[in-house]
Amino acid sequence: MQRRLFFALPAQSVASALHHCQQQLHEEGHRKPVNANNFHLTLHFLGMQDEHILPQLYQVAAELRSPPFELTLDQYGLFRHAHCLWLGPQHPAPPLLHLVNRLGESLTQLGLPVSTDYRPHITLFRNARAMTQCPAPALRLQVSEFILYESISAADGVWYKPLRRWPLLNQSVDEKQQ
Ligand code: ATP
Ligand code: MG
């Protein structure tokens, strides 16, 4: 069976602050908010894949060593082609790029396509045609795990099912000595 897959960071810990941003943006005329249960920051989008690949994805994710980190979400942006209005980090934390790059290397080794123009973001509105004039907040997102999600299209809209999650870990003393 084919499944639509992506790796992402969950953003539920800042959901109420993101919802507050949506309320401000709504006053500006943005009308199609992302459901708060769906807030996430994509690391790698894999698209439709045969489910036989899942054990390999679970293995590379489990073997990945990357430390936990904090991300400051402090910039609004607009993807003009996708009509997405988003909030993201103005300066992506080096540990985020480390995680994305390491995961990307593993996915490439599995023969999966990896996009080269990575732009970390949390989508707040769809069908957005104009950039916001609202000043961006500075939300701190504590990142301690990453998740492989399945994107499921249902009658009442898309939702994301977490298939498996992995903690981000600081290197142990033993590993550093190796
Ligand atoms: P829908 O496509 O139904 O409007 P969605 O875009 O939220 O909803 P998906 O298309 O399954 O759902 O995407 C899941 C995640 O992967 C989203 O964060 C989306 O922005 C990202 N994504 C989707 N397509 C791509 C792509 N071609 N390149 C990079 N990221 C993508
Ligand atoms: Mg999409």
What's the CATH topology name?
A: Cyclic Phosphodiesterase, Chain: A
Bound molecules: adenosine-5'-triphosphate, magnesium ion
Mean pLDDT: 95
Shape: globular
Largest sheet: 4 strands, antiparallel
Trace the largest sheet across and list its strands: 3-1-9-10
| Beta-strand content estimate | 35-45%
H/E element order: EHEEHEEEHEEEEH
Number of domains: 1
Radius of gyration: 17 Å
The name of the CATH architecture is Alpha-Beta Complex
CATH class: Alpha Beta
**CATH-defined superfamily:** Cyclic phosphodiesterase
DSSP summary, beta strand count: 10
Family: Belongs to the 2H phosphoesterase superfamily. ThpR family.
Keywords: Hydrolase, Ligase
GO molecular function: 2',3'-cyclic-nucleotide 3'-phosphodiesterase activity; ligase activity; RNA 2',3'-cyclic 3'-phosphodiesterase activity
InterPro entries: Cyclic_Pdiesterase (IPR009097), RNA_CPDase (IPR004175)
Can you tag this structure with a few keywords?
binds adenosine-5'-triphosphate; four-stranded antiparallel sheet; 178 residues; alpha+beta; Cyclic Phosphodiesterase, Chain: A; binds magnesium ion
Q: What would your notes on this structure say?
A:
By secondary structure, the protein is α+β, with helices and mostly antiparallel strands. The chain has one domain: Cyclic phosphodiesterase (Cyclic Phosphodiesterase, Chain: A, Alpha-Beta Complex). It contains 4 helices and 10 strands. The chain has helices spanning 15-27, 54-63, 94-109, 173-177; strands at 2-10, 32-33, 40-50, 69-73, 75-79, 84-88, 122-126, 139-143, 145-154, 157-167. β5 (75-79) and β6 (84-88) form a beta hairpin. It is globular, with a radius of gyration of 17 Å. 24% of the residues are buried. The mean pLDDT is 95. It binds adenosine-5'-triphosphate and magnesium ion. Adenosine-5'-triphosphate is lined by residues 4, 6, 42, 45, 115, 151, 153, 158. It is an enzyme of class 3 (hydrolase).
